[in-house]
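help with this.
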Amino acid sequence: MYIKRAIEESVLKISKTFPVLLVTGPRQVGKTTMLKRLADESRSYVSLDDPDIRSMARGDPALFMQRFTPPVLIDEIQYAPEILPYIKMSVDTSGKKGEYWLTGSQAFHMMKNVSESLAGRVGIVQLLGLSCSEIDFRPSEPFTTSPERLMSRLKQTRQLGLRDLYERIFRGSFPALYKET
């Protein structure tokens, strides 16, 4: 079962704006799952969690880039920052939007590498745990502070009792915890 994320529309817009999309966030919040769901069949997938693939990406980035051509989703980019300059060269040559979708942890050093290597070429999105709307399978939109918007949402939102609130806090917001409810 897939839980639709409120940020999906924004992710697709960013992918149409920048050659590279980077989705960051804590482990297990659904970065890869969401991107795989949004990808069309022409986009290949490669995970740098695989030690052999990671070794190739780090040891021979040019070969890695020849093997995994765009459009591509590269998972766990923080494990092989050596390929970032090669991604830069690729997008500078092609000029196409949305060629590379990357996922990575929130590690500061990784963000610094991406920002320096791909400046002006990357749209960065942070994905966190599920929102209350996502958990309750209600239509969700990115948060705003508009009083009119907040008041209209109040009418649609289910009030949580104290017991429900404590259960939600105890359970957390990782998608895997809500797959079977």
In short: The longest strand covers residues 20-24. The chain has nine helices and five strands. The beta strands are 20-24, 44-47, 72-75, 100-104, 122-126.
